[in-house]
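Possible regression after last week's pipeline update?

I re-ran a chain I had predicted before the update to compare outputs. Posting the input and the new output here so someone can diff against the archived version. Not blocking, just want to make sure nothing changed silently.
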Amino acid sequence: TGVQTCALPISQLEQYQGSIASLRQGILACEGELRTVSSPAYTARDRDRALAEQSVDLASLETSVTCVEETLQQLSDEQLSGQLAVVKFTMVTLEKLEEEARALELRIAGEQGAAVDRQTLAANLTSCRTRLVTLNTQAQASKSRLESYMVERKKRVIEIKRYQSLLIDLEQWLGEAQSTISSEIRLTSAKVVRDQIRASETLEADLRTRSGQLDHLLKEVECLNSYTDVQPLVQEMMGNLGCLGEVICEAQQCLAKRLQTLQDALRDMVIGYPEGTDLEKVLGLAVPDRKSVV
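New output (post-update):
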C-alpha cells in the first residue's frame, strides 16, 4: 500500500511535467512569432511595402494629371458644344483627383517609414496638387471662354440670319424690277410714254439705292469672314450677294436702254409741231399707226 501511495504522486508528477513541457513549447513558439513580428527587419519590410504602395498611387495620380493637361491643351474653338462638354467632364475629373490627393496625403503622413522617403513622397504630392490647382484654373478659364464664345457665336448666327432675310427681300424686289424692265414698251401716246419714262426713272433711282444697300450688306458680311465658326455661312452669303450684284448691274443696263428708247420715242412725237401747240392735248391722243417696241 505504501508503494501504491507513493506511485500515484509520481504518475501525476509525470503528467504535470508533460503539460509543462508542452506549455513551454507553446510559449517558445509564441515568443518566436513575436520576435519575428517585432523584429527590425520585419518592420522595415512592412514599411517599405507601405511606402512603395504610396509611390504607386502617387505615380498613378501624376499620370492622371498629365492626361488632364493634354486634354486641356487639345481644346480648340471648333465644335464648341463638344469642347464645352469636355471641359465640364475634365473639371469633374479634377475634383476626383483632388480628393485622391488629399487621401494620399493623409496616408503618407501616417506612415512610419524613413523620413527621407516620406519627405520625397510628400514633395512629389505637393507638386502634383499644385498642378491640379493650375489645371483647375485653366479649366475654369476655358469654360468661361467657351461659354462666352458660344454667346458671341449665337449673336453672329443671328446677324447672318438677318442678312439672309435682307438678301431674300432684295432678291424678291429685284425679280419684280426685272419684270417691269422687261415689260412691253407702249407708244400709244405721248402721255403714256411720259408715264413710262417717269416710272423708269423712279425704278432707276430705286436700283441705285438697292445697289448701295447691297454694297453695305456685303461689307458687313465680309467682317464676319474671319470667324471660323461661321465662315462657311459667310462665304456662301458673299457668293449670293456677288451674284445679286451682277444681276442688279445687268438690270441697270437694261433699264438705261429702255429709258433711252422711251425718250427717243417721245422726242419723235413732239418734233415738228408749231410753236404754241398744246402738246399735252395733241400728244394725249392715241397714235394708232405707231407699233409697240419691246
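Follow-up from reviewer: compared with the archived run. The helical segments are 2-37, 40-73, 80-110, 115-181, 190-222, 231-270, 279-283. Marking as no regression found.
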